[in-house]
Design a protein that fits this description.
Elements: E1 27-30, E2 35-38, E3 44-46, E4 49-53, E5 64-66, H1 75-78, E6 80-82, H2 89-111, E7 127-131, E8 142-144, E9 147-151, H3 157-167, H4 174-190, H5 194-204, H6 211-221, H7 240-263, H8 270-273, H9 291-310, H10 323-339
Parallel strand pairs: 6-7, 7-9
Antiparallel strand pairs: 1-2, 3-4, 4-5, 8-9
Helix pairs in contact: 2-4, 4-7, 5-10, 7-10
The structure holds zinc ion (2 copies).
Length: 345
């Protein structure tokens, strides 16, 4: 991830920023360049192509939309298939919150050079149904045939936290939901031949096992006692599909956080963390093995957990990466490297 800066005064800004806190300029993000541009005249010209602020800018979307795109919406907003009604302002506020997490997801998928085919270009392409169970609709978070459904009510802290506690989860966030569900989408796309499926089954189990039976069993009996010996979470034990999606989500957690640390120039000294070498996260890991990535993460997550504890907060990364889980992550890493695509945004 590049270090995001105000294009006018070079102040460091957040990926969500609509304006520069130092010079006060309005700024907008261009996803292909992964950089900010000033909105001085309302339009931005990049390599001879004209861009406008996304039509959802009043709902906090800070991305640019191509002038010839027709919809007036950015790449991320165009992936939304269903959303709350225009008069449902409470749900639209939740939509704006979830949109921030969705853009972070899409920016990361682009950084990792993963393919994104929108639903409006191809049957089974990627789509988001962003709906709120608080608006009287029955909304179940999940993925089916490219469509990711998200319950916007989960952007309410009280609602999401009560679910997290009830389900005994160490971590539950809107970004985590997006990363998990997109894992289901990518399993079908990146496991492109029989050889990859064979390896997938060996690592995660046979995905042809009945999903309905698995759900029933999971909610009746819970995860097996020894779930942590080979799984990243209790939920991952439910079905091979869920194990893959959980693993994929963790791959995004790890690479996303290391990418941010790398952009900020974070380095960990051997003497400070007790490692065997200086840790310099590179942000993007294109080596065929996952070893360097996981070693960087081991020490970086340990440091970030300490930082969180010094604020009285829960650990940033409350998970253990045991050997069977690292083999699953290595498989995901190889799938991601093999994809190497640059979607047209
Ligand atoms: Zn500035
Ligand atoms: Zn947008």
């Amino acid at each position: 991830m590049t270090s995001f800066r105000c294009p006018a005064c070079r102040t460091s800004v957040y990926i969500e920023s609509l304006g520069c806190p130092t010079c006060g300029r309005e700024i907008a993000y261009q996803p292909d360049r992964a950089a900010f541009f000033p909105l001085d005249g309302g339009t931005v010209v990049i390599d001879g192509k004209t861009w406008y602020p996304c039509g959802n800018r009043h709902w906090q979307c800070n991305w640019l939309a191509p002038a010839d795109g027709g919809s007036g919406l950015c790449f991320s907003c165009r992936l939304t298939r269903r959303r709350p009604e225009n008069d449902d302002t409470l749900a639209l506020e939740r939509l704006a919150d979830a949109g921030t997490d969705k853009r972070r997801l899409i920016a990361q998928l682009l950084e990792l050079r993963l393919p994104i085919t929108p639903f409006h270009e191809q049957e089974g392409g990627l789509a988001f149904d962003l709906l709120s169970s608080h608006s009287g609709e029955n909304v179940i978070i999940g993925h089916a045939n490219g469509v990711i459904t998200i319950d916007l009510a989960e952007s309410l802290d009280a609602h999401r936290e009560s679910l997290r506690v009830r389900l005994g989860e160490a971590y539950r966030t809107m970004l985590g939901h997006f990363r998990h569900e997109v894992g289901h989408y990518y399993q079908n796309i990146l496991c492109s031949d029989e050889e990859k499926w064979a390896e997938c089954r060996e690592l995660f189990g046979d995905e042809r096992a009945s999903y309905q039976d698995s759900i029933a069993r999971h909610y009746r009996l819970g995860a097996p006692e020894d779930w942590a010996k080979a799984h990243i979470s209790e939920y991952a034990t439910m079905h091979p599909w869920e194990d893959f999606a959980e693993t994929f989500a963790h791959y995004l957690h790890i690479t996303g956080t290391l990418s941010t640390a790398a952009a900020a120039g974070v380095e960990l000294r051997e003497s400070g963390v007790g490692g065997t070498r200086e840790i310099e996260p590179t942000g993007v890991y294109r080596e065929p093995t996952v070893d360097r990535l996981l070693d960087d993460w081991h020490w970086a997550s340990f440091m970030f957990n300490k930082v969180n504890r010094s604020m009285g907060a829960r650990d940033l990364y409350p998970f253990d990466l045991v050997e069977p889980v690292t083999r699953k992550l290595a498989f995901v890493h190889r799938l991601v490297l093999a994809a190497d695509t640059r979607p047209d945004v």
